[in-house]
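Worked Example 4.2. Consider the chain below.
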Amino acid sequence: MHQSILKALVEIAGEGNVSQSEADREQHSRDQSAHAAHLPEVVVWPGSTEEVSRILQLAYEYKIPVTGWGAGSSLEGNPIPVHGGIVLDFRRMNRILAVHEADFQVTVEAGVLYKDMNRYLSRFGLFFAPDPGANASIGGMIANNAAGIRTVKYGATRDNVLALTVVLANGRILRTGSRSVKQSSGYDLTHLFTGSEGTLGLITEATLKLAPIPTHISAATAVFPTVQKAAKAVFHLIGSGLQPSALELLDKSSIRILNTSTDLNLPEAPTLLMEFNSATTESLRTELALVEEICQGFECSNFQSGLGMKARNQLWTARHHLFEAMVRYFPGCTWLVTDVAVPISQYPELVAFAAELLPKLNLDGGLVGHAGDGNLHVTVFYPPDDQTAVTNAAYLNEQLVNKAIALDGTSTGEHGVGLGKKQFMVQEHGETAVTLMRQIKHLLDPHNILNPGKIF
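Applying the procedure from the previous section yields the following structure tokens:
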């Protein structure tokens, strides 16, 4: 990168906010996936939308790749700068700009971290519902359309975004949407950029829908003899009209690993972790009684509800840290995390397929699902130099994607396309749709400088 460009970046962002140090470049070369790292040439921490605009004007003029960076917590290589260039780290843009308490909304900068924001919003009795587990940045969550354990009731990030400020590849600033919950004016540009993984524009501000913090909450666990039985219980729980705020499926291996990192001491068997909330304790009690009845119909051997707040928090904290626990459980191994999703009616078939396929390939790992919305993750660990295991892991991923698409599902429910799912885009969407996506990309980013190498 020419010194004149570095000098211009320093003039825009300030000397302390531009770095070519090996440590900073290494830190921004990989996310939490096992995809290969790629070093950027320079890391810049912009402080405003205007600075992002000026940086992109410069990059556009010299055709320099630019990759946005939130918290680096993604699992599909989405922010890895595979073509080097500039990484824009939004850490400095971390202000909560306005809380519209009466409208259940908040406007924030892209670098605000999810958990930090919700701690602040709790003083208003509000929270942002999509929960990816990690303390992801809001900009990253929107760019990736992150979801998580609460999608079953509140929807994914896409369902909770009202308006955006986006900087286009040429530096122009675009504002989409409005604070009105109902919007029917023109093309839906807000949702075009949501889930685009920083390939169409860089999100710098967002207005989000919030939900009131529930008053009456109860977590529950249900233990089953097989994952197939647990998955069938999920279908009937949702089909009965119940509205869990979280509904997770863990297989026996995942529960065993969970127990090694906590003192939960859950029975080592396929288990549903659930949470329900209601306006009154009476209605909550009635709902949980129906949940237990449904679970018993699928040979549930152990049902516990009414867990106290401490136990409930411990349960979900353990669930959020399960991936890290798995990494510790398989030291020295690399990993692959699958991320398929299907209609809820097809979920039992998907889970049964995965449960039968995993042992056939002699791979260690476990099944974890955001079961209430049909999302399944199979995470496998293997020595990086074991070529048979590498081949089997890739085959596992391919077979799960093929199965999900055959069941009218998707290759990625929440992790995004990134680097790992590019090969399935035409299979899932068809040549015509992918061609149209390419045309939209070229229209908004004709020099292909925004996160090149992703999605296509």
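The mean pLDDT is 96. Residues 45 and 89 are 5 Å apart (CA to CA). Compare this with Example 4.1 before moving on.
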